[in-house]
TrEMBL record, chains A, B:
Chain segments annotated as coiled-coil in the UniProt record: none
Name of this chain's protein: PRC-barrel domain-containing protein
Signal peptide: none
Domain of life: Bacteria
Residues annotated as domain PRC-barrel: 12-66
Pfam families associated with the record: PRC (PF05239)
Matches recorded under Gene3D superfamilies: PRC-barrel domain
Length: 110, 110
C-alpha cells in the first residue's frame, strides 16, 4: 500500500544523490519549525575527507525518494549546495537563526 | 539565543509527561507528510509492562517542551490517548492510512 507518511527515523541516515548522480552524503537530521512542525530543511552530511565533514541544508521539497536506490535524489548538485550556507564539524553555526539573510534556493522552506 | 527550530534527533527519545504530570513514555518517532514535510503526528512509546509497549499518536501542537524537565509535556492524559488509535509491539498497524476515520483530537494534524 502506498503511504503518504514517512517516519523521521527512516529519513535520517539515508543516502542522498545529487541531480547529476553524484553521491552528496546522507541525511543527518531534519530541522523542524517548533511552532508549525514543518521541516525547515534537512541537513546533508557529506562523506568527508580526512575525517571531516561538511553539513549542507537542503529544503524538503528538493528531496525525492528513489525506492530503487533506497536513497534520496536531490534537485541540486554539490556545486549548487556549496554556494549556500555550510557548516564544518564543530562549527557553532546557528542553524535556527532566521535573521541570516541567505537567499539560497535550497535553504529554509518554512 | 532562542531558537525557532529543533533537530529531529533531539526530539526522538525525549520523555513525555501527561497534562496531569504522569509520565506517558517517550517520543519514538515523528510521522512526516511526504509532500509537505509537516509532522502529521509524533508516536509516543509507553514504558511498557512485561516488555511490551503501547504506541500512541499525538499531534505536534499538543506537545510543549519543558526546558526544566528536559521533556515534553502533552496536552493530554494517558486516559485520553487510550480513547484514540493505539498500536502494540509488532502490530501491522498502517500509520499512514488516511482513510481511517479516526476523529481523535490528538491524531493527525496535516
Amino acid at each position: 500500500m502506498s503511504h503518504t507518511l514517512v517516519p523521521s527515523d527512516r529519513v535520517e541516515h539515508v543516502n542522498v544523490y545529487g541531480r547529476n548522480g553524484t553521491k552528496l552524503g546522507s541525511i543527518e537530521r531534519l530541522m523542524l519549525d517548533k511552532l508549525t512542525g514543518t521541516v525547515a530543511y534537512a541537513v546533508i552530511k557529506t562523506g568527508g575527507m580526512l575525517s571531516t565533514h561538511h553539513h549542507y541544508p537542503i529544503k524538503w521539497s528538493a528531496l525525492k525518494y528513489d525506492p530503487e536506490r533506497l536513497a534520496y535524489e536531490a534537485e541540486a548538485t554539490l556545486e549548487e549546495l556549496q554556494t549556500g550556507p555550510c557548516e564544518f564539524d564543530g562549527d557553532e553555526f546557528d542553524w535556527g537563526d532566521r535573521s541570516r539573510s541567505y537567499t539560497h534556493p535550497n535553504y529554509w522552506a518554512v
